[in-house]
Specification:
This is Prevent-host-death family protein. With 156 residues, this protein is mostly helical. It has two domains: 7-44, YefM-like fold, CATH 3.40.1620; 47-136, no CATH class. It has helices at residues 11-16, 18-28, 46-69, 74-83, 92-112, 116-133, 135-142; strands spanning 8-10, 31-34, 41-43. Helix 3 (46-69) packs antiparallel against helix 5 and helix 5 packs antiparallel against helix 6. It is flat, with a radius of gyration of 21 Å.
């Protein structure tokens, strides 16, 4: 759900006047609750969210059916550049692998409520396309390495 700034209220507003915020959410379809010291969250009617979940599950099943009846995933692979223009830097095999991995992740998100995998798949293939988009960096990345490069610092 996309909630405009007009549909946003502060956490303080919510705590002071829950009834008015709930009525506003019902009227607008949802409100964004902003909080100075924490992430924002959305207040949405349960039936509306359940409808979105059913739509998402149906879409996921449709993609899985495409692949079941066409193991090459041709229709989906053809559509991928419109959704992810950066795939032009991937080989045909990589594009197909990305497509299949994405459909699997979307299925997990719809059926198992595991959303993080979808974003990980997209980020991983974005990184692959990014390195391949720069021929000099790609050539350097493909060179063999040896030895221990020491500990790796991971930042959030």
């Amino acid at each position: 759900m996309s909630i405009s700034d007009a549909g946003a209220v502060t956490f303080s507003d919510l705590s002071r006047n829950l009834r008015a915020v709930a009525e506003r959410a019902a009227r607008l379809g949802g409100v964004r609750i902003t909080h100075r010291d924490a992430p924002d969250f959305d207040l949405t009617a349960a039936d509306r969210e359940e409808g979105r979940e059913r739509t998402f599950a149906t879409t996921s099943r449709l993609f899985l059916a495409f692949i079941k009846h066409d193991p090459t995933a041709r229709a989906l692979v053809i559509a991928m550049p419109e959704v992810f223009p950066r795939v032009r830097h991937l080989s045909p095999d990589e594009l197909r692998a990305f497509t299949l991995e994405l459909v699997d992740a979307l299925s997990d998100a719809a059926e198992l409520d595991v959303d993080v995998t979808t974003q990980e798949v997209i980020a991983g293939w974005r990184a692959t396309a990014r390195i391949k988009a720069d021929p000099a960096h790609y050539a350097k990345a493909r060179k063999p390495t040896s030895g221990d490069f020491g500990p790796v610092q991971v930042s959030a």
